[in-house]
Amino acid sequence: MEEEIYCIGCGAKIQTDKPKELGYTPQSALEKGLESGEVYCQRCFRLRHYNEIQDVALTDDDFLRLLNELGKTDALIVNVVDIFDFNGSIIPGLHRFIGDNPVLMVGNKVDILPKSLKKGRLTQWMRERAHEEGLRPVDVLLTSARKPNEMQELLAKIEEYRDGRDVYVVGVTNVGKSTLINQIIKQTAGVQDLITTSQFPGTTLDKIEIPLDDGHYLIDTPGIIHRHQMAHYLGAKDLKIIAPHKEIKPKVYQLNAGQTLFLGGLARFDFIQGDRSSFIAYVSNDLSIHRTKLEKADEFYQKHVGGLLQPPRPDEVDEFPELVRFEFSIKEKTDIVFAGLGWVTVSKPAVIAGWAPKGVDVLTRKSLI
Ligand code: GDP
């Protein structure tokens, strides 16, 4: 029987096959650790050596336990969401767990949005969506964990709203929570020193406590996996293609009814009925878009998925979920959102269909731009 080994940093049971879960350490690191008698999980190793926080995902039950804890604390809750995948960022039922604590909603990755997008409109939209979810944030703001100069406002707001209390940072996986916290650590030098010198100030299985200068803590909690994110159907290489790294350059298509756009092999947009007009695609600049005739689109997809239409890659096609169709009748300027991938803006009345891999949502929202 295999011997059970525990991380000496956080106490997690060491495992070598699930990189996103608790206690993961690469096999080679485990062997080295065993030789020296000090086995750390990768999360603790990175925290110790690089002052870098790496998120782990929790199972639903553990996550519920953690959420329950939130209501019992007196703290500011910072809910990080990915503005590129707002629906995929929602923590289901968060409002039921937070008690009387204020929530600051932070929309991350603002760097990838086209400059033409009005930020006020986006925060207003986020606020409305939050209300629909039963959440009443004290404030909604946009930031980018990639751009230190975008972080100042966030730091000031956290200071203002925490009002001498602890801060819990929560978010589903992939929203950029770790990147954001790492940036916060870098920006607040005093804290950085504390982390370097101390032996994991408060790393436990399910959270990392970063000391603030008034005796309180900024607490990083693990993310929960949101199954409807496109990210879960793709490999690491494909994720690089679909996750925008730079400001998105909108792509404009003049289409007649009866035309189809393929977003790689991941999604499909059919213009079924309506006057000729322009459609604007907002997706990663690296994702290629193909235009074809609607009547030939099924055949085209069968023939080219994994080839001309990538991702998925040729070796992923067999495992890749089939595309599922959602039909919409559009009356005013509307975004058709392919969760985690981007959106297509429809500016005139039309009947359209959006297709996404089974399990991934296609939805509409009032146009952001
Ligand atoms: P976590 O699972 O929420 O901790 O997410 P990570 O911090 O691991 O980030 C998920 C992905 O989003 C990574 O590929 C990051 O590089 C990327 N990311 C994080 N913050 C930003 C940001 O502000 N802008 C952009 N463009 N990408 C970001």
Automatic annotation (TrEMBL):
Matching entries from InterPro entries are given as: G_CP_dom (IPR030378), GTP-bd (IPR006073), GTP-bd_ribosome_bgen_YqeH (IPR019988), Mito_lipid_metab_GTPase (IPR050896), NOA1/YqeH-like_C (IPR048422), P-loop_NTPase (IPR027417)
Report the transmembrane regions from the record: none
Identify the domain of life: Bacteria
Q: Which PROSITE patterns match?
A: G_CP (PS51721)
Q: Please list the GO terms describing molecular function.
A: GTP binding
Cite the CP-type G domain residue spans from the record.
64-227
What's the name of the protein?
Answer: Ribosome biogenesis GTPase YqeH
| Organism for this UniProt entry | Enterococcus pallens ATCC BAA-351
